[in-house]
Fold:
Amino acid sequence: MNVRRPLVAAVAILSLVFLYLPSLAVAVFSVNNARYGLLWKGFTWKWYQQLCQNEAILEAAVNSLLVAVISTAAATVLGTALALALDRFPWPRRLTQALDILVHLPVVTPDIIMAAALVLTFSLLRGFADIFDLGLTTLVLGHITFQISFVTLVVRSRLAALSRDIDEAARDLYATGPYLFRRVTLPLLAPGIMAGAMLAFTLSLDDFIISFFTHGPDSVTLPIYIYSSVRRGISPEIHALSTLVLLATVVLVILAERLSRFRAD
Structure:
């Protein structure tokens, strides 16, 4: 028993090192004064300063934030409504199982399959409206399609922790449907909704495959810009940009995890 504990601890430490060592190396090289090579030539912030002066990167950052904000807002509303409909409406058992499968399907479907399906869909719809030309609109729609499922699952997990006795007690006190939703259900669901929204925002900010297939010439996002830059050669500015994206993702994931654990008094 005493031998197993150090062995388990060593495996756990090695696993963490394997997961985070590449990210740590990127962060270290983002403050290395050497533009080329792997030798340490002193600490510097100049790569971050040059990053802030790069118009192409700033445009990609604006596109990423714009797509993430719009798609997250839409997916949060739709996902919350879907979670409420699945949890509160008395669906037949078989239909409930079918709906559960449909909700989980975008989560487990490979991104490359989903991206190809979106491209085909937009190609078919392009004959009816110009808004389906590859660009910012298709990029937002593509992100919404996979964000809805994640928001729905997070909000449903919050709903599962709420007793229906609360709704019955409110109705016994003559609360109407809109009043019950506005003053009881929505405040109790708020932590789950916020956690789902932050998760959706993080997924949108980091997405590459679906963005690569559905973006246009004027809607390049940060992951696409990083990919294109790496193909031309890795520069310290890319290390700095990757570090900032990683830090933003970590902060959002931590906030989403804390909110998902929050329980109203």
Notes: Residues 48-261 form a domain with the MetI-like fold fold (CATH 1.10.3720.10). The radius of gyration is 23 Å. The chain has eleven helices and no strands. The longest helix spans residues 55-88.
